[in-house]
Amino acid sequence: MNLTFQPVRVATGSDEEGVLVFDEERRLLVVLTRLSSDNEVAPGQWFLEAGFGRLEGRSQPTFSDLEAAQDWISQRIG
């Protein structure tokens, strides 16, 4: 599965660095935000802010990097 990552700022109130993830048909799959270094639970990790389609309503995990996020997304929609 070929996923595209597009950097974006997300108005979460604290952690604004984000990424939109699209499939090969340019459908938005998820919105990820990078947690700040001040985050007590997972500093610097990527958080699944929102999922769509098959990824909607699932748990909201964190990922050590974007490659880990890509693997997780691909497993669930592949």
Written overview of the protein:
The protein is α+β, with helices and mostly antiparallel strands and 78 residues long. It has one domain (4-77). Helix content is 15%, strand content 35%. It has one helix spanning 66-77; strands at residues 4-9, 17-22, 28-34, 46-51, 62-63. It has a 5-stranded antiparallel sheet with strand order 1-2-3-4-5. A hairpin with a 5-residue loop joins strand 2 (17-22) and strand 3 (28-34).
- SSE order in H/E notation? EEEEEH
The domain count comes to 1
Q: What's the β-strand tally?
A: 5
Strand portion? 25-35%
Overall geometry comes to globular
DSSP helix fraction? 10-25%
How many helices? The count is: 1
Q: By helix and strand content, what is the structural category?
A: alpha+beta
Rounded to an integer, what's the Rg over CA atoms?
12 Å
Distance between the termini: 7 Å
Outline the biggest β-sheet.
5 strands, antiparallel
User: Uncertain regions: pLDDT < 50 for 5+ in a row?
Assistant: none
Main sheet: which strands, in order across? Answer: 1-2-3-4-5
User: What is the residue-averaged pLDDT?
Assistant: 92
